[in-house]
Structure of Alpha-hydroxy acid oxidase:
Amino acid sequence: MGSLDIAGFEAAARARLADDVWGYIQGGSGSESALRANREALERLRVRPRFLVDVSACDPSTSVLGLPLATPLGIAPMAYHRLAHPEGEVATAEAAGASGTLLTVSMFASRTLEDIAAAAAGSPLWLQLYWLRERAAVVELADRAAAAGFSALVLTVDAPKVARRPRDSRSGFTVPEGIGAVNLPSSLTASAHRHSEGASSIERHSREQFDPGITWADLAWLRERTSLPLLIKGILTAEDAELAVAHGASGVVVSNHGGRQLDCAVASADALPEIVDAVGGRCPVVVDGGIRHGSDVLKVLALGADLALIGRPVLWGLAQGGAAGVAELLELLRAELTEAMVLSGCPLTSDINRSFITAG
Ligand SMILES: Cc1cc2nc3c(=O)[nH]c(=O)nc-3n(C[C@H](O)[C@H](O)[C@H](O)COP(=O)(O)O)c2cc1C
Ligand SMILES: CC(C)CC(=O)C(=O)O
């Protein structure tokens, strides 16, 4: 505990987690070039600070889709938090709830939606979905989320199948028995637990269960079956952002899945400006990928994002200390963001705009 920067959380988690779990969490697809590109794109961006602005009161709060948020930083959907800590998503939700941080729960969460909602204590929750061949299971989950007080759905579209991820193939990564996607019927999750030497069970499971045949035209089917707003996650082009809005999406998540899907995909911070130019102002633009410091949040807000999501570091915090570890991580990022706003002359998140950014 008491890490001064995010590297301390990463090191603590590495020391606690088994090699195959660490490889699954940290890894990317292929040569991991999209994973590296996310960080490189953010590092390339530099801030143009302005001075002699009154920053004696700095407030990083914001709101997205009518939800008041303590900071413009939320938690990205990640499967199986119990891989990192026995309490899993309930611990994450406790920390998110205590600080008013948005938590996006994965369809492959390892704790029930209802237990997660109870732990979040009224703080905002979104539910992420993949489009399964078994459509009834998707709709049932959306209904349960609405009943449990979740306020939006996030459909991930960048994974017609899980990509080849060499670290997982090498380790034969298999979701351990005892940690499961407990919100889905066991008939749909069994193969994620079946081990084969030299192959990823998650990749095989996705080939069996994900529907690679869906198109934009199918979105209407889902929207007709839920009253919750639907965001589309995995958008990397202005064209797809326009299509998402044209098909009734309430928001887009600019993401290359943390470098875990198309290995040669554009970095999310590089894709962001064209997407903001296309649909910004018409719907919230959320972004994730490589956010590792509060100043990274300032940078993507300057490019026009409304909200940044953080992925892997949340699992590092969870592995380090359960709810307390996640709370400490969120507090570090909030403090870093507030300092970056003070030092660059932006007392409010609404003050942050493109004039604050330059590409190196
Ligand atoms: C271990 C792990 C599991 C993930 N599971 C999901 C998931 O279930 N659904 C999803 O849409 N994205 C999933 N993602 C992708 C994240 O939502 C997010 O796009 C990415 O991790 C953000 O990048 P970052 O980890 O660099 O912050 C997962 C990522 C990781 C690292
Ligand atoms: C279970 C997987 C489909 C979760 C995921 O999206 C990922 O590992 O990137």
Notes: The mean pLDDT is 97. Residues 24-25, 38, 76-79, 106, 108, 128, 156, 233, 255, 257-258, 260, 288-291, 310-312 surround flavin mononucleotide (ligand 1) (CB under 6 Å).
